[in-house]
Design a protein that fits this description.
SH3 type barrels; two-stranded antiparallel ribbon; 102 residues
Length: 102
């Protein structure tokens, strides 16, 4: 029997996805092409840390992780990313309404 090298012992797909279609997200790190992005060389930057995008697809990887397809607004690149590589973008109107009573 072979040992499988995994990033984590956590199996995300036992729970619902953290992000959903249309959610705005921000890259927590710069992502470079590992050879799976067509038309670009290995090592080319696909998105930079802090760049914002929108969730356009949700898949799985290794029956363990959700992979979120993110359409980045600035570059137009669609990049598959794990949860640990993303953070939610707060909506400006949500921030403005904090502490305001109706």
């Amino acid at each position: 029997m072979t040992n499988i090298s995994r990033d984590s012992d956590i199996v995300e797909i036992n729970d619902a996805p953290f992000f959903y279609y249309g959610d705005k997200v921000r890259a927590r790190r710069t992502i470079k092409n590992d050879g799976t992005f067509p038309g670009m060389d290995i090592g080319d930057i696909l998105c930079r840390k802090g760049e914002e995008g929108v969730v356009v697809s949700i898949g799985t990887f290794l029956q363990q992780f959700y992979i979120y397809g993110i359409e980045f607004i600035e570059t137009g690149h669609r990049v598959g990313m794990k949860l640990k590589e993303l953070e939610p973008v707060e909506e400006p109107e949500d921030i403005a309404l904090e502490g305001v009573s109706a």
